[in-house]
Design brief:
It contains 6 helices and no strands. With 103 residues, it is mostly helical.
Length: 103
């Protein structure tokens, strides 16, 4: 089974938040092996799981989907690649709770 960008984006978001699979799976109420299968694309991402990610990470589900959509497809060339990378970073930064932002 091919890994989707949604599966990959959930893995990247977990890593961005500095969480291990064990940590996040406990917070999501799923097993670590199930989370691993989701991240590898062996299990489909369900709406229920997206809701859990949204709740646990305090990130709107639409942001999770938008992040996945922004990294979908073939890598663009040149300046477009930098533009999209900047957009993805901006989206990730917006997921940081206000109290964690450095002033």
């Amino acid at each position: 089974m091919k890994q989707s960008m949604l599966n990959e984006s959930l893995r990247l978001i977990r890593i961005y938040w500095g969480k291990t699979q064990v940590d996040l799976s406990g917070e999501l109420g799923i097993s670590q092996s199930y989370l691993s299968d989701v991240e590898k694309g062996k299990k489909e991402v369900t709406i229920d799981l997206l809701n859990k990610y949204s709740r646990v990470l305090d990130v709107p589900m639409s942001s999770l989907l938008l992040f996945a959509e922004n990294i979908e497809g073939h890598p663009p060339m040149g300046r477009t690649r930098m533009f999209l990378a900047g957009k993805a970073l901006k989206l990730l930064r917006s997921m940081i709770p206000d109290e964690l932002h450095e002033h």
